[in-house]
């Protein structure tokens, strides 16, 4: 037994591209992305944050390049990290060229905002010369002026028309190594736009609810929007956008994927909200275990239930389980079966030891 039995999701088969060493689209696992919030010119701090994101599980990291010094700093940064780097480019095409030369694995651009077709051609030539993929990044907050005049406001049809126009710009230059996003801070707008885009193209889609908000509200909005699309088989890579530590974006991203049985990393704790029946302090126990087990990277399911009402049933579906009992006498389950009892004072150390031992047994794919 390795995971809880969830219903499988049938993903839409998209074209596969590569962002550095990471495959995106096709049958590749859904990747989790985040973005640094340090000054890119502060190389040491940016490298430190990138490495922290990688430790948290980030597959791809985006770095902003608002000026020449930032795009040139990429080379120093990339030489010190071991993860694909996406250069975030907006209006100036030369920043994209500089980033490609500096070693970026992907350029996040909106071709319609880059300028003339000749400037777009120069960016695409640099991307080809330096084996750099592209993300067409359409955003409800920065739609082209002509589309806003046509549709009067950001709407799904406007986002998708922008995306389709940009796709054609790249295809006309025989460039196909790209993924696309049509983000909005509105869950309904974003999800409808992604559905429309998915129905008219087969390029890999990067999912996100942009500018979603703080940790709690942003996580909920992102989970709803990204989760709905993933359940429909739409999406190849995700970024949870939060006004919070970027590490939280990675954590929430994995929680979304784990909840849908799309990807597993680290300990998945199934726990009850606690009540008067609890045989031990469930909330404090779970909070402590989350911290003590944060170093585990291999997928392990753990149930922590305060009483025997749902405890045995949940434990039967997890690799390791704990059910509260009477008289300071709680049951540990292994592989779904009752194994031995543990006192309240020894719960934390016992569970941590069991999870760490289980982690050693699991072979790395």
Q: What structural keywords apply?
A:
five-stranded mixed β-sheet; about 375 residues; Sulfite Reductase Hemoprotein, domain 1; TIM Barrel; about 20% strand; about 40% helix; alpha/beta
What does this structure look like?
The protein is α/β, with parallel strands linked by helices. The protein has 13 helices and 15 strands. It has 2 domains: 17-259, Alpha-Beta Barrel (TIM Barrel); 267-361, Sulfite Reductase Hemoprotein, domain 1. It has helices at residues 43-56, 68-78, 93-102, 111-114, 117-129, 145-151, 156-172, 187-200, 215-231, 246-259, 282-292, 311-315, 347-361, and strands at residues 17-19, 22-24, 31-35, 60-64, 85-88, 106-109, 133-139, 178-183, 206-207, 237-239, 267-271, 300-305, 320-323, 330-334, 337-342. The chain starts with 16 loop residues before the first strand and ends with a helix.
């Amino acid at each position: 037994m390795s995971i809880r039995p969830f219903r499988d999701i049938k993903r839409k088969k998209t074209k596969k591209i590569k962002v550095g060493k990471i495959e995106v689209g096709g049958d590749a696992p859904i990747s989790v992305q985040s973005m640094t919030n340090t000054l890119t010119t502060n190389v040491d701090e940016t490298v430190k944050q990138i490495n922290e994101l990688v430790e948290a599980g980030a597959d791809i990291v985006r770095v902003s390049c608002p000026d020449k010094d930032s795009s040139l700093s990429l080379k120093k940064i990339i030489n010190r990290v071991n993860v694909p780097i996406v250069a975030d480019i907006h209006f100036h095409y030369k920043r994209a060229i500089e980033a490609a030369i500096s070693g970026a694995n992907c350029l996040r651009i909106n071709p319609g905002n880059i300028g003339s077709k000749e400037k777009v051609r120069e960016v695409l030539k640099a991307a080809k010369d330096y084996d750099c993929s592209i993300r067409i990044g359409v955003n409800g907050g920065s739609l082209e002026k002509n589309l806003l005049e046509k549709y009067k406001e950001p709407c799904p049809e406007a986002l998708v028309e922008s995306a389709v126009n940009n796709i054609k710009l790249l295809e006309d230059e025989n460039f196909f190594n790209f993924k696309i996003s049509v983000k909005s801070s509105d869950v309904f707008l974003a999800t409808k736009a992604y559905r429309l885009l998915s129905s008219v193209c087969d390029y890999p889609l990067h999912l996100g609810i942009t500018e979603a908000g703080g940790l709690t509200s942003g996580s909920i909005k992102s989970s709803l929007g990204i989760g709905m699309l993933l359940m429909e088989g739409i999406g190849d890579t995700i970024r949870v956008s939060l006004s919070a530590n970027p590490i939280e974006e990675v954590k929430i991203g994995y929680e979304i994927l784990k909840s849908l049985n799309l990807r597993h990393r680290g300990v998945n704790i199934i726990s009850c909200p606690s009540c008067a029946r609890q045989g031990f302090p469930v909330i404090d126990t779970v909070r402590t275990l989350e911290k003590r087990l944060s170093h585990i990277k291999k997928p392990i399911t753990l149930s922590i239930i305060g009483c025997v009402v749902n405890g045995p049933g949940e434990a039967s579906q997890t690799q390791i389980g704990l059910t509260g009992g009477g008289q300071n006498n709680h049951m540990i389950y292994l592989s779904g079966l009752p194994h031995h009892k543990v006192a309240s004072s020894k719960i934390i150390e016992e569970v941590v030891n069991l999870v760490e031992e289980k982690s050693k047994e699991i072979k790395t794919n």
